[in-house]
Amino acid sequence: MTREPSDDRHEPEPCIGWEVIGVDGSRIGTVVDIGREYLLVALGPFPDRDRYLPKSSIILTEDDQITLNVTREEVKRVSFGEPERS
What we know:
The radius of gyration is 12 Å and the shape is globular. The mean pLDDT is 85. By secondary structure, the protein is mainly beta. It has a domain at 19-77: Photosynthetic Reaction Center, subunit H, domain 2 (Photosynthetic Reaction Center, Chain H, domain 2, Alpha-Beta Complex). It has one helix spanning 72-77; strands at 19-21, 27-34, 38-42, 51-54, 58-62, 65-68.
């Protein structure tokens, strides 16, 4: 159940502490770090459950909330890897 990212660049930039929601409306987690190309999202209280998610998966940012083009189950199942270190 994926959707294409939004092309509307007038949406606010994501912020640390914002809630992350899946395309199906399920709560994924909370943004704990933001890079140029990624979000680090805490899926729960333990750091080993944090996931790097590409910013390209964002379809909507509003009301201190980010909606992604993937579901919570997809985030838990699929490894999106880690961002490149420079």
